[in-house]
Design a protein that fits this description.
heterodimer; A: about 220 residues; mainly alpha; 3 strands; elongated; B: about 230 residues; alpha+beta; 5-stranded mixed sheet; 5-stranded antiparallel sheet; 4 helices
């Protein structure tokens, strides 16, 4: 696996395009992003008194909040498990696995230039793992809050408490995600169009670049 | 794929934190607030203003956020009394005011410290109507059309139970139950009926809205609903 063994003839011209996210991943990302945006905004309207008054229509806002929240795991399952979810499943397994370089990258917050990254840096991996877990926690606690009748009071209390705190950290994580996306417009465009330049891949994700140019392999997979 | 499955550990860790919070969050809340307070004091980013501590959650049991202007607002006092009457908002404001600064504790765990309240002693309103000998309890009705609450007559006579029209030095806004709400200081928030509409004297306690869903009728803070919060 040593990077030095990559033959020089594999080099692509800098402007050559490499598929970073396939169509299913991109649709899944933007559906998920829209749903997250909706639940975060409607949640804020329900939670912040001043916004509650401004917007009114509390029942409608609450209904949108609840059902868009429930739609998040459904949309994920539809993208992930069928045959078309191959690239997405592969990326989840990349997010799961951390190399020594990933750990070093996180420790040095990306300042160590000797670190050779795969398709994602460890900040992205950490964020993704957190958000998936947090989304499930939000669906569980939100459901307890919405359909509270079978639950004892302290479980309802605990759920409210968890829902509020997790909302705060999800906001932080999503704002951070958007911040980093805008700092790297080419990477952001790749989530829209699917492809990214060989230059970007070689400079930012050398290990992924090698994987994809080693030949024969479907780069998105 | 080589490497350590850190992603899975983070994912499972997040689920674990969530589960622990659901099971023990009811107890951890106050402790967490105290733990976070010094950090909030030092926070230079302003982000801590959005932390879910020390703020009211807005609850309504009907679909809409009820709203009534001061001009159209009326408070009815009736039931087992000698002289039922109706007050306008201005008439209520003209009565001798009672002020207090006390915490608001919700049964779902959150607490807002040192809220400034102003209103009229419920006891005074009852005296004005002349409570009949067979009256034992009060039933409160909200103009949301659904919510009800209750107190025994002796609870209602306490000096820390008011019909409030001001909060934090200003009019009570719609989401906090304005223009007029009940504030029962020693009990959990669900007793403090929002959008107060009618006060009826009854011959027995009629359990209120949440009490049909298992909340205690006598809702003393720290001594009911299985909770041990400090008294307000």
């Amino acid at each position: 696996m040593a990077a030095t063994t990559t033959p020089p003839e594999a080099e692509l011209p800098p402007d050559a395009q490499i598929t970073r996210f396939d169509r299913v991943e991109r649709i899944a990302h933007w559906v998920n992003a829209s749903l997250f945006g909706i639940v975060m905004l409607t949640g804020s309207i329900l939670y912040i008194g001043e916004l509650s008054i401004l917007v009114g229509n509390r029942e409608i806002v609450r209904t949108i909040h609840v059902y868009c929240g429930l739609a998040i795991p459904v949309a994920f399952l539809v993208a992930y498990f069928p045959r078309w979810g191959k690239a997405l499943r592969r990326d989840f397994s990349r997010i799961n696995r951390w190399t020594k370089d990933d750990k070093r990258w996180l420790r040095t917050l990306g300042r160590d230039k000797d670190v050779r990254l795969g398709k994602f840096n460890s900040g992205q991996k950490l964020n993704a793992a957190f958000v998936v877990g947090a989304a499930l926690v939000m669906v569980a606690t939100g459901s307890i809050m919405k359909w509270f009748e079978p639950f004892p009071v302290d479980i309802r209390t605990g759920s409210t408490f968890v829902h509020d705190w997790f909302a705060f950290f999800i906001w932080m994580s999503v704002l951070g995600h958007i911040w980093f996306a805008f700092k790297d417009p080419e990477a952001l465009r790749a989530m829209w169009r699917g492809a990214i330049s060989a230059r970007w891949a070689r400079g930012n994700r050398p290990r992924w670049y090698e994987e994809t140019t080693r030949g024969g392999e479907d780069p998105a997979a | 794929m080589d490497g350590t499955p850190v992603g899975r550990r983070v994912f499972l860790g997040v689920l674990g934190v969530g589960a622990v919070g659901i099971l023990w969050g009811a107890k951890a809340q106050d402790w967490l607030e105290r733990a976070v307070a010094p950090l909030v004091a030092k926070d230079g980013t302003g982000l801590s203003a959005f932390l879910p501590i020390g703020r009211f959650r807005i609850y309504t049991v009907t679909g809409e956020l009820p709203s009534k202007s001061k001009a159209e607002y009326r408070l009815q006092v009736g039931g087992l009394v000698d002289t039922p009457y109706t007050l306008t908002y201005a008439e209520l404001r003209a009565l001798p005011p009672t002020k207090m600064t006390k915490d608001f504790q919700c049964v779902t765990g959150w607490r807002v410290h040192d809220v400034k309240w102003q209103g009229v002693l419920l006891s005074d309103l009852l005296d004005r109507a002349g409570v009949q000998g067979n009256a034992k309890a009060i039933r409160f009705k909200s103009f949301d059309g659904t919510y009800t609450e209750s107190l025994t007559l002796s609870q209602a006579r306490r000096k820390d139970v008011i019909v409030a029209y001001q909060m934090e030095g200003g009019d009570i806004s719609d989401e906090h139950g304005g223009p007029v709400r009940l504030y029962v200081a020693p009990m959990y928030g669900y007793k403090s009926c929002k959008w107060l509409d009618a006060i009826d004297l009854t011959d027995q306690v009629e359990p209120g809205y949440w009490e049909h869903y298992g909340y205690d009728v006598d809702a003393w803070v720290g001594k009911s609903n299985g909770r041990d919060d400090n008294a307000t």
